[in-house]
């Protein structure tokens, strides 16, 4: 069967040609990532624009449409999987409790790091670069011990909870360009499970809390985040911790709303409820982020990419977030779930062992 198209089924292996193409794409994206990191460290004003005002604003939409593309080419993933690709990993398996704990730490890390953008990262390229290097150091270290994506990409990465929330109804499944064979290192594998969601695994209390926090908390957290200006000078601890106030209040409000709704509604509506919260989160993000990118932000020039103030009339600006909101609610809530996973699972390394592992899952 041709491996150059997207018509993959579980267990299909990549042809040498497809592997070569994916390696070239991964290397190209890795070089782009390394260039952005270099800019952050040595040309911080350029690096901040490239990272916070170009790369990051694209990410949520990519997660909604085709998160598998990002999972295949993420430069941090490419770096962190090097020990495994080079045969240097001990390839240990994490227990369900360890994975649940990593997932919970990832959600908490997300809610700790993102407000710090207002206090530090949005105006400090060097600090942003050091944060990325620290993440790579942690991820690579974990990669020396644990199998494939289990420890970082599907464990501790603070972006992963957002991928799982937004990536519930992707456009297409693409080949898995990282794992050559499936070792069942994460059960269920977020990459290979159709229409995944943050509640897909509730094996431990850590899984349950992390699922609740990201589904219920993210929309309010995002709303709150956009109501805080960038602090250009942190003069006191109060100013520093002040950047957390509104995002955490927003988080609490939508989390409580989600808890009430999920308890009141029949269990058969749970998946729809998750989709509504996912659509609310990503819509809220673009509702504020697109105007800020083009100079119409609440705290302009915070988050500015290129000002269109003198180019487009003011009345056009509110129309853009309305259109993106309609699109995301259609895509995530109204559109029928299509049974697609982010990437296609490669063939199992050991079918008997993995059948048993799946039965125990
Ligand atoms: S496809 Fe298999 S080996 Fe790769 S991350 Fe998923 S469970 Fe692990």
Protein described:
The chain is an all-alpha fold and 361 residues long. It has one domain (16-360). It is 61% helix and 1% strand. The chain is built from 13 helices and 2 strands; from the N terminus they run ααααααααβααααβα. It has a two-stranded parallel sheet. Helix 5 packs parallel to helix 9 (205-225). It is globular. The two termini are 31 Å apart. The site of iron/sulfur cluster has 13 residues, from loops.
Give the topology, please.
Layout: H1 16-42, H2 44-73, H3 75-80, H4 82-85, H5 96-119, H6 125-143, H7 152-156, H8 160-166, E1 174-175, H9 205-225, H10 237-264, H11 270-293, H12 319-334, E2 343-344, H13 351-360
Parallel strand pairs: 1-2
Helix pairs in contact: 1-2, 1-6, 2-8, 2-11, 5-9, 5-10, 9-10, 9-11, 11-12
Iron/sulfur cluster binds next to loops.
Give the structure's gist in a few sentences:
The protein has helices at 16-42, 44-73, 75-80, 82-85, 96-119, 125-143, 152-156, 160-166, 205-225, 237-264, 270-293, 319-334, 351-360, and strands at residues 174-175, 343-344. The protein has 361 residues and is an all-alpha fold. It has one domain.
